[in-house]
Specification:
This protein has 13 helices and 16 strands. It is an alpha/beta fold. The C terminus is likely disordered.
């Protein structure tokens, strides 16, 4: 073994007293996602190192790219912390590369090492200039930037950098319940919430026969797209048919969407408490549709005291689409299967609803009883990875 994957934490290093908690959570997440690979993972307060088989490197990189909490990683050569060992290994590495100019940057974490960083650079650079023809140093725009990290027992040499997903490791925050429709926005909201360390459960409202099994399968596919960023997601499926039909029978046409969203929020609060989640998460974007004006949000939100996080609230549609394409949910989201929020849409939904009007219309029906029944009848799909789907009633 002469190479390791060297992982840099980035934002995690700012956590001071909680730093070990964040690093340990990241370690466990990486260990879980690399289960099945022949790897050994070692961590300390500043770096994490993954020993790997060369034949598995490309697959491992694809997994690591989607793990939150990693700022950057490198494929680094490992040598004993000895100046001659470092010089010889660096020369072997550089002889295999095609370049005209180079620059060396050294970081000496081992303060007992005989040379400081500024002394190591010319020693290593001079060794290359002496042994490789027709090369020169360029400190401004080199063909190859060589980085050397000198640590207590081993030192690391690398010429590559791979950007990680950043954010916080999932599990460093409590659980949130994602309102996952079949649209473009809610999967992006889920992705952004996970990037801040929130572990997700997802909730899908269906109204069969008004919505189809194809619409349900579309949401399952979206959940499978999201689960590659975490270890598992429980997708709770709510039978919303009777509630939605009752709304359209008894409420003013212009208020149907507003009342429908209020009932969804009531269900979400019950589910959150049942599943020990602390927040509701959704894909609402300010002003995008009638139910997402600030007035509408206020009236809808008034049914719950639970915090509601809207990660895409201040993004425009094109920005949301860009993220959806990046995380590979866009093509699934645009499949033409309607969900609860797109069926029976009135021609002129109210954009500035009044809470007093909502309450008058809701008094006509015992929605609390219907909500309790909907929660009781929920069934759950546990999605562990993109290939594994297990059905389990968790409630």
């Amino acid at each position: 073994m002469d190479r390791v994957i060297l992982i840099k934490y980035g934002e995690l290093t700012t956590k001071k007293g909680n730093r070990n908690f964040f690093i340990n959570t990241l370690y466990n997440n990486i260990k879980d996602k690399l289960d099945g690979f022949n790897v050994k993972i070692v961590k300390d307060r500043s770096r994490m190192y993954i020993e790997f088989l060369d034949s598995e490197l490309d697959k491992i990189k694809k997994v690591i790219d989607n793990i939150f909490g990693i700022h950057m990683y490198h494929i680094a050569y490992i040598v004993d912390t000895n100046i001659e060992e470092i010089k010889n290994k660096l020369l072997d590495i550089m002889k295999s590369k095609s370049f005209k100019t180079f620059k060396i940057e050294t970081k000496r974490s081992d303060k007992t090492f005989a040379y400081n960083s500024m002394e190591v650079n010319p020693i290593l650079g001079g060794h290359l200039l002496k042994n490789i023809d027709n090369i020169s140093v360029d400190v401004h725009n080199p063909d190859i930037l060589v980085k050397v990290e000198i640590r207590n027992k081993h030192s690391y040499i690398y010429t590559n950098s791979y950007k990680g997903s950043g954010g916080y490791p999932i599990g460093t925050q409590a659980k949130g319940m994602l309102m996952l429709s079949g649209g473009i926005d809610s999967p992006v909201a889920g992705y952004l919430a996970m990037k801040r360390g929130i572990k997700l459960d997802a909730v899908y409202f269906e109204a069969i026969p008004h919505t189809s099994l194809d619409a349900r399968n579309k949401v399952i596919e979206l959940t499978k797209k999201l689960v590659k960023y975490t270890n598992e997601i429980n997708l709770h499926i709510v039978n919303f048919t009777k509630i939605q039909e009752e709304i359209y029978k008894t409420a003013d046409d212009t208020y149907c969407i507003t009342i429908m969203r209020r009932m969804m929020y009531k269900i979400m609060e019950k589910l959150a408490k049942k599943n020990k989640a602390l927040v509701i998460i959704n894909g609402e974007s300010i002003g995008q549709v009638a139910s997402q004006t600030l007035t509408s949000m206020s009236v809808i939100n008034s049914v719950t005291n639970m915090p509601v996080i809207r990660p895409v609230a201040c993004l425009d549609k094109l920005e949301i689409i860009d993220i959806a394409k990046k995380i590979d949910t866009y093509e699934t989201s645009i499949l033409p299967y309607e969900d609860c929020c797109t069926i029976f849409v009135p021609k002129h939904p109210v954009i500035n609803p009044k809470l007093s009007e909502c309450l008058k219309m809701e008094e006509k029906v015992d929605y609390d009883k219907m909500i309790d029944k909907a929660v009781e009848d929920i069934y759950t799909i546990k999605i562990k990875d993109e290939k594994d789907i297990k059905f389990k009633n968790l409630l």
